[in-house]
Amino acid sequence: MGVHRCWGCGSQNEHGLQIKSYWEGDEGVCVWRPQPYHHAWPGIVNGGILAAIIDCHCICTAIAAAYRAAHREITEPPLIAMVTAELRISYLRPTPIAELLHLRAMMCEQTERKAILTCTLSALGEVCVRAEAVIVRPRASPGAGM
Amino acid sequence: MGVHRCWGCGSQNEHGLQIKSYWEGDEGVCVWRPQPYHHAWPGIVNGGILAAIIDCHCICTAIAAAYRAAHREITEPPLIAMVTAELRISYLRPTPIAELLHLRAMMCEQTERKAILTCTLSALGEVCVRAEAVIVRPRASPGAGM
Q1: Is A139 in a helix, a strand, or coil?
Q2: Could you give the CA distance from residue A21 to residue B69 in angstroms, rounded to a whole number?
Q3: pLDDT for A36-91, tens place per residue?
């Protein structure tokens, strides 16, 4: 999944977070290890960067679901581009910086132009952050020219 | 405002975003220039990093408001620490990457333990993102040992 140069998921953005999203059944999953400098307080991950990886993982999952619904491979042109319209995040407990973070996104609603997903972010088996994202397909592709 | 090593606002985090928040009357303001690699699509800022700077700016504003309500200087110990409980973001239009971004946060509700803020992020005079944040003061300071 993903766009090559996106700061969140782009494999060719050397300054980016380079998250990788995969299907596990009907869930989009992602495992990501924060860097030591991604902290807010000692030992605790900055909430903003958690919002960033949740946002990007939800977009990647929604795009993959759109390709899946169209019975197309993700590498097959034309590109399906989607963007976030709404992101609602609940920070339930501090997220430890020294652990692998596990994201799981589930599609709740899917039409050709819109997807609503829920996403959890867990560490050490505990859900630290819960989110809902509304992802939409713009009429003009923002990826034109990439 | 801010904590020295926080990835969002820490002046001593060389890998961080180093946002700076100030009072302008009763509004917390912040001006930030994205780097070229902070894109989602060509010319458009990644929504996740926008969530990150909004989150950190709202926390900084809430902490500054708490010091102000206590008639204390921000540098005066003991530290007042606050964390995000809820963040709701509406992406209204694409945010251009080549422009200065202007954030304005307003306190809507303030008690000793909780603050609710609205925040806008604008470029070229147009609001691109609108957000609401619920910021809380944990009973045990996450900054212990900083």
Answers
A1: coil
A2: 44
A3: 999 998 899 999 999 999 999 999 999 999 999 999 998 889 989 999 999 999 99
The closest alpha carbon to A92, from B134, B143, B73, B111, belongs to B134
Nearest CA in chain B to A142: B41
- In contact, A109 and A76? CB cutoff 8 Å: no
Distance CA A92, CA A115 (A): 24
Taking only the tens place, the pLDDT of each residue in A90-128 is 999 999 999 999 999 999 999 999 999 999 999 999 999
Q: What is the pTM of this model?
A: 0.93
Q: Is A31 helix (H, G, I), strand (E, B) or coil?
A: strand
Interatomic CA distance for residues B44 and B42, integer angstroms: 6
Alpha helices in chain A (DSSP H): 47-69
Collapsed DSSP state (helix, strand, coil) of residue A53: helix
**Rounded-to-integer distance, Cα A86 and Cα A131, Å:** 10
Residue A83: its chain B contacts at CB < 8 A?
A: 40, 47, 91, 94
Rounded CA gap, B39 and A7, in Å? 6
Query: Does ipTM top 0.90?
Result: yes
Nearest CB to A55; choose among B16, B39, B48:
B48
